[in-house]
Amino acid sequence: MTVKIKVDDTIVLELIDYHHAEMMYQLVKINRLHLREWLPWVDHMRTVEDFKKYINNSKQRYTNHTETGYVILVNHVMIGRIGFYNIDPVNKSASIGYWLDKQWLGKGIITRSCKAMIDDGFKRLRLNRIEIRAAVENFKSQAIPVRLGFTREGIIRQGEFVNNQFVDLYVYSLLKEEWESRR
Question: 15 with 62: CB under 8 angstroms?
Fold first, then answer.
């Protein structure tokens, strides 16, 4: 069964599966320089086989209810990835992570996709808290939680190792009651 979240008339989020491996590989290959600036995993993903292993692990985490990873499709063309990570069913929290093909930046796709993910997280997954983390220098990524009404809580100092250096991360959060009061 293919799990999908309809964002709007052109954007669909589709649960990641093995048939996405080749396209994910090609997408990362052409966006490698763009993506590696902020994402620590990019340099380790060099072959289609790497993506098949990643997808296998992602599917296992989905089965274990600790992750829901989706590809972002615009008119059936894959342009990026979004998902819930570190799903904590006891504390009813999760983090959203995302990346997008460089040519699709600035079109509101991630913001709209995050809205759909947030709705899904609070309704279907019954989360109470959703986080987004972004490097303090990654202004484009920070704009997403700000636009969506998240609260910037603080900084995780040297929270991620990217390009052979530690980077500080802002932590943004949104509570279910805040989201519902704005709807």
Answer: yes
